[in-house]
Amino acid sequence: MNMTHYMELLAVNQPWNLIIFMAIPIVLAETLAITELYILFTRKFDGAVYYLNRFAGIAVGVYFVGIIYYIVTNAIIPFTQAGEWRTAIDVIAVVSYVIAGLPLIWIALQEFGLVNRALDQMGKLKIHATCVALFLVFGHIAMIAGMVDPSVLGYNAPHTMEINHEKSLEHKDHMK
């Protein structure tokens, strides 16, 4: 089966790529989302859950700066320049993953006090909740699109195994 570059990234270099590109950011983002719900319901802007929320927001935002830099420089730019995208579904998966990180970076910027300074706690909470929702939407688009076999949209992978097998047979015939 063919796979998108998104799935290939997660599948190679096991278990490290899976940990770096999926486990760490998802654990941080889910911690952010769960603590966000608690704060939305309780309106408690102090205590352990609030500080865990702030930590998760800063950590996942800063982490995604590195992920986005890596993906743009090692995937998006080279694949685009070389024409190596595996149909539109591949582009959707990778670009959605990058877009999913942007609202998390905004949350980190807010926690550092670099944006939304004029907002009160409730205004900042609304921005937080909106950013978490955007992350969830784009993150799920990336995961779903990433799991689609690009051949559904017409991608034909180079058949290197078949080609190597044919060359091997030709070489054996030559050796007789």
N/C terminus separation: 36 Å
H-E string: HHHHHH
- Structural class by SSE content: mainly alpha
- Low-confidence sequence ranges: none
Largest sheet: none
CA radius of gyration is: 21 Å
Could you say how many structural domains there are in total? 1
Shape descriptor: elongated
**Count of distinct strands:** 0
The portion of residues forming beta strands comes to: under 5%
Helix content: over 70%
Please report the number of helical segments. 6
On the 0 to 100 scale, the average pLDDT is 90
Condensed summary:
Helices cover 78% and strands 0% of the residues. The protein is an all-alpha fold.
Question: Main traits of this protein?
Answer:
mainly alpha, 6 helices, elongated, 176 residues
How would you explain this protein's 3D organization?
This protein has 176 residues and is mostly helical. It has one domain. Helix content is 78%, strand content 0%. It is built from six helices and no strands. Helix 2 packs across helix 3. The longest helix has 35 residues. It is elongated and about 60 Å long. The model has no long low-confidence stretch (mean pLDDT 90).
